[in-house]
Amino acid sequence: MIIGSGKLSLNCLVLKIIAAVFVCLTSTVVAINVPNPNYADALTKSILFFEGQRSGKLPPNQRVTWRKDSALLDGADKGVDLVGGYYDAGDNVKFHFPMAFTTTMLAWSVEQFKNSMGPDLQHAMEAIRWSTDYFLKATNIPNVVYAQVGNAEGDHNCWERPEDMDTPRTAFAVTAQAPGSEVSAEIAAALASASVVFKRTDPAYSKLLVNRAVQVFEFADKYRGSYNDHLGSWVCPFYCDYNGYKDELLWAAAWLLKATRKPMYWIYVKQNIINFKSDMESSLSEFGWDAKHAGINVLISKFVLDNPSNANPFLPYADTFVCSVLPESPTNTVRYTPGGLMYKSGICNMQNPTALSFLLLTYARYMKSRVIRCGNIDVTQKMLIRFARSQVNYILGINPMNMSYMVGFGTKFPQRIHHRGASLPSINQHPEKMGCKEGTPYFLSENRNPNLHIGAVVGGPDIKDYFVDSRPNAAQSEPTTYVNAPLVGLLAYFKAHP
User: Fold this and answer.
1) Complete DSSP assignment for 459-494
2) DSSP 8-state assignment for residue 283
3) Does 32 map to a domain?
4) Distance CA 188, CA 74 (A)
5) pLDDT per residue over 286-327, tens digit each?
6) Are β-strands 372-374 and 144-149 bridged in parallel, bridged antiparallel, or unpaired?
7) N or C end: fewer C-beta atoms under 10 angstroms in the chain?
8) What are phi and psi of 66, to 5 degrees?
9) What does the record give as the active site (predicted)?
10) What confidence score (pLDDT) does residue 210 get?
């Protein structure tokens, strides 16, 4: 998440002016005769990124060597082991709500596109397991789910390496008396989706995951409530639940249906899609770490496309999502930059192009020859795939700035990303401890980051395709795990279908 903004340097302002002139001259991206990016290279790097986000005791096969062990006492304040998991972005807090969504999307990426991943499949599964091993720890006590480790305010007041952290590593939990249905249900979804991934290669682990997912879902559903009400002063404004917890309950049940094939989960989804109708219909186009509405309908569409009697309201909802996103649709509600990138207001816009494009690509593969009617426009499978490719290509460099927004991909990419570990000299170069404020000169420096965080996808350009490569410009320059997770699936598909 974001540390204080600070003022942009003169060089950054000049860069912004140059970018503005460039965009005015180019207006829109013309992709005619432009070769597709190297999707295979981007896939490898998008998965490597997760190794740079690891918390805990790093394994012997760790490939990102500028990172070292960190946060080895997490959970000690509560007498539990909470070592491991991921840092969500450029800070050193473990926020379990977005971490769980990241895990679910990594698992869905592998479940859908594993046959296209080649040698990267093993690394993708390791990325999932790094998270699920952690969530098994976080849910080990019945009716207790740990929701966060670290004091965000204290952490954001420092600019220091994760290996040096001296800010409070407080562990926060939701319980039967202080529920948090959204974070608990999202963790259940993560465990259930991962159980699908490991079912053939490690059936014992898969069974452990799905059994825990069932327990955590039952807890989330029985003790309903938002963690905002009990942990709000710690989780907000960073990862408040703005969309309520009902979508997470449906999302988890849908993944348990996929993982177990038990009718009870179909009954739950079918009944509650009606019970939660007002919540669902107000957010049919939303999908990300906070809102699962569009994802629920796309996921369930796989079950109902061959059974018309169960199609309502899932297919109409999924079709509404498609029509609200595609730029040529007369009912489109999403803005686009002049260069063609999907843009929604808020910090870290790039989560929208990756997450929504993943859904469109997945729905396209489910629908096959089916045609969606958006006003007077017929939308086909090919149109959805073409649109998803346009978003991926923009991220990888086919855009007005002619730059990749993935670090280490292509010849021009962000060099000053808002990321503590990447922006400070590694322990290899600076073995002495660096205190809370010792990193501030590096944060304010205009120098390039000393460590390339390969595969990190930053927040991206603004509504006019402008991008300022500046560390204090967190909204544009900070990477997050939940941007990369759905991109893994997209890149795997386009690697196999260049």
Assistant:
1) ----TTS-----TT-HHHH---HHHHHHHHHHHHHH
2) S
3) no
4) 22
5) 999 999 999 999 999 999 987 888 999 999 999 999 999 999
6) unpaired
7) C
8) -75, -10
9) 418
10) 98
DSSP assignment of 123-173: HHHHHHHHHHHHHHHHT-STTEEEEEES-HHHHHT----GGG--S---EEE
Q: Give Cα 442 distance to the centre of its chain.
A: 27
What's the pLDDT tens digit per position in 402-418? 999 999 999 999 999 99
C-alpha to C-alpha distances, 193 to 11, 55, 199, nearest whole angstrom:
46, 22, 10
Instruction: Evaluate the omega torsion of the peptide bond into residue 203 and state whether it is cis, within 30 degrees of 0.
Output: no
**339, 465 in Cβ contact below 8 A?**
yes
Q: Is residue 357 one of the residues assigned to a domain?
A: yes
Instruction: Considering the candidates 123, 418, 419, 453, report the single residue annotated as catalytic.
Output: 418
Tell me, what's the pLDDT at 33?
66
Tokens of 388: 């998803």
**HSE-up of residue 32 (Cα within 13 Å, Cβ side):** 2
In this prediction, the residues of the chain whose per-residue pLDDT falls under 50 are 2-31
Residue of 494, 422, 344 lying closest to 161 (CA atoms): 422
The domain of 129 spans: 10-26+40-54+62-496
Q: C-alpha dihedral over 302, 305, 311, 315, to 10 degrees? A: 70
Query: What is the C-alpha to C-alpha distance for residues 493 and 42, in angstroms, rounded to an integer?
Result: 12
Q: Residue 347: its pLDDT value, please?
A: 78
Catalytic-residue membership of 96: no
How many domains does the chain contain in total? 1
Pair type for strands 94-95 and 144-149: antiparallel
Residue-wise pLDDT tens digits, 145-192: 999 999 999 999 999 999 999 999 999 999 999 999 999 999 999 999
Bridge partners for 441 per DSSP: none
pLDDT of residue 280: 83
CATH number at residue 138: 1.50.10.10
Neighbours of 272 (CB within 10 A): 17
Mention every residue, 6+ apart, whose C-beta is less than 8 A from residue 180. Answer: 145, 147, 174, 220, 225, 226, 227, 230, 231, 245
Q: Which two tokens stand for residue 246?
A: 């009902």
Does a structural domain hold residue 2?
no
